[in-house]
Design brief:
Layout (H helix, E strand, L loop, with lengths): L4 E6 L9 H10 L7 E6 L12 E6 L5 H15 L5 E5 H5 L1 H7 L5 E3 L8 E3 L3
Parallel strand pairs: 1-2, 1-3, 3-4
Antiparallel strand pairs: 4-6, 5-6
Length: about 120
Amino acid sequence: MPNRNILLVEPGYRNKYPPLGLMKIAAYHGPFGKKDNVVFVKGDRAEVVGRPWDRVYVTTLFSFEWKEISKSIEYAIKVAGSPRKVFVGGIAASLMHEQFIKELSGVGCVSSRGCYLKPLRLRSS
């Protein structure tokens, strides 16, 4: 199903390099893959709020930035309009699985723990 709207979110913490996981997802969904409309944002950007998103991916890199990551996940849920459209993956999501479940207890969460390629999937409680 091409022409879906895909949003890639990197939390607003400082880092030198682009998130490799999101870049791979962009390649999968982008013009040489599924031909979807892919948008990348860092931090909270107002211009993506209100647009219809089919999927929102959030990366997590630094476990010591888990508060900033939690804010980005909440932002992604707000932007997506539904927690079912939000996928969270990355190192911090794998290492701090329980902490994110506690922090985001209002939305509920389903996840397979371990490999960072398996996303933390959020859903309505």
